[in-house]
Amino acid sequence: MKIAVIGAGKWGQALYHAFSQKNEVAISSRTKKDIPNFISIKEALEYEYIVFSIATQSIREFLGQNFVDMGQKILVASKGIETSSGKFIDEIFCEFTSRENLAFLSGPSFATEVLKKLPCALVVSSSDHGLAKTWTEAFPNFIKAYESSDVIGSEICGAYKNVIAIASGICDGLELGNNARASLIARGLVEMNRFGSNFGAKNETFLGLSGAGDLFLTASSSLSRNYRVGLGLAKNQPLEQILKELAEVAEGVPTAYAITNLAKQKSIYAPIATEVCAMLDGKNVQESLKDLLKKK
């Protein structure tokens, strides 16, 4: 396969490295990078198979300015929810191309470990079984890829786990212990599932790689950007300072607001996401902890 990866951040470069093991792969971004096989955005969008790894809040603008639908087969590796509209990523892409041309990547995977060729397992979700199979077969031997038809479930898992990871980072930053973190993550998984059920997601997705797998990884390691945001909040650092020092996109920050807004609109009980938003807005983390413990 000839594949173009659009987005040259850490995750984009990791996917470029992974797909290059078995395929002919180029990489592109709006900012020129000194990477082998770097091509222009225009050239990348002419490929039949394209991987998108760009910040969720930039997707609509990027597609509107650059994308021309030529029936490209797309694998979306971005995670999150658009804050301005509350739309999921598949809904945004479907404004620019057909649903049968779209697949979505999820599962536990840190870019640094993929670059080292360490083993992991991922999920490719699509309404088109043939497209999902095509993408799973393109992965290298050190990545076991599974197929799924639950696009919305995989998307919600990938978005929501980043919010729980912020809460988990706060928990560890306050040195509340392993018991507290495990309890938080377990209740976070329940909260994710409850939210997803309102959008037609399948329960088993939340118990698999896309849900529990990715959540356990992201909410328990300092390799996670969102977890590190939580560590900073626990130290009472201003959010602006945390994000500046991070120097990378922490999707859990805008996603927390998107989830909370959707939860309010649909009367979904989302206590952890709600408290994460409050802390992002400056609420004292100790007060948030007390309030969270009072909730059911």
UniProtKB/TrEMBL annotation:
Sn-glycerol 3-phosphate binds at residues 79, 107, 109, 161, 214, 224-226. NAD(+) binds at residues 7-12, 111, 225. Pathway: Membrane lipid metabolism; glycerophospholipid metabolism. It is an enzyme of class 1 (oxidoreductase). Residues 41-130 form the Glycerol-3-phosphate dehydrogenase NAD-dependent N-terminal domain. Residues 150-284 form the Glycerol-3-phosphate dehydrogenase NAD-dependent C-terminal domain. GO terms for biological process: carbohydrate metabolic process; glycerol-3-phosphate biosynthetic process; glycerol-3-phosphate catabolic process; glycerophospholipid metabolic process; phospholipid biosynthetic process. GO terms for cellular component: cytosol. Keywords: Cytoplasm, Lipid biosynthesis, Lipid metabolism, NAD, NADP, Nucleotide-binding, Oxidoreductase, Phospholipid biosynthesis, Phospholipid metabolism. Belongs to the NAD-dependent glycerol-3-phosphate dehydrogenase family. Catalyzes the reduction of the glycolytic intermediate dihydroxyacetone phosphate (DHAP) to sn-glycerol 3-phosphate (G3P), the key precursor for phospholipid synthesis. PANTHER family: GLYCEROL-3-PHOSPHATE DEHYDROGENASE, GLYCEROL-3-PHOSPHATE DEHYDROGENASE [NAD(+)] 2, CHLOROPLASTIC. This is Glycerol-3-phosphate dehydrogenase [NAD(P)+]. The lineage of its organism: Bacteria, Pseudomonadati, Campylobacterota, Epsilonproteobacteria, Campylobacterales. The gene is gpsA.
